[in-house]
Amino acid sequence: MQLNTGLADAVISWADVTGSQKPCEPAKFVYHANIGSVIGHEITFNKDVWAKLPASMQKAVREAAPLYAKAQADFALAGAKTQREYCVTQQAMKIVEATETDRQAWAEALPPLALDWARDQDKKGRPGTKVLEANMAGLRAGGAKPARNWDKE
Question: Phi and psi (nearest 5°) for 96?
């Protein structure tokens, strides 16, 4: 790992892999930004492959998808807790939590990354803006309070 060799002196990591990838062994200090980034766990199909699947298979995948998404989210959350506990208890990792002021300042300092991505997808004939709006609406409906209205800037 680059931390072990000195090639890097910091790393951005997802909590659910912190213990397994072990950046907490050489890096004992964590700044927990809590900026809402996530790693996706999904099943994807190439459009041509999907079109070749029998209707019964497509139906089964569509029915299983919400269950799979929930199971993956639960797995990631449980993994994050376990990995964090390992790093704190076994590796003496120290965690500094970002303040709301710091988190807000960070979000405001960034360009409109999500909207830029969405518009780029729109130009390619993909529903980027619709995906972004649906994602943000889902977050808000679930009680999340995004630091920025990434879909409305």
Answer: -110, 120
Please provide the size of the chain in residues: 153
Q: Is beta strand 94-97 parallel, antiparallel or unpaired with respect to 29-32? A: parallel
Read off the pLDDT of residues 86-124 as tens digits, 9 standing for 90 and up.
888 988 888 888 899 998 998 899 999 999 999 999 999
Report residue 138 as tokens: 């889902």
What's the whole-model pTM score? 0.60
Tokens (6 digits) for 104: 């807000």
Q: Is-contact 128 121, C-beta < 8 A?
A: yes
117 class by beta-carbon count within 10 Å (0-12 exposed, 13-18 middle, 19+ buried)? middle
Residue 132, strand partner residues: none
Closest CA to 27 of 114, 84, 94: 94
Domain boundaries of the chain, sorted by first residue: 2-109, 111-153
Question: Under DSSP, is residue 24 helix (H, G, I), strand (E, B) or coil?
Answer: coil
pLDDT, one tens digit per residue, over 47-86 is 999 999 999 999 999 999 989 988 888 887 787 788 888 8
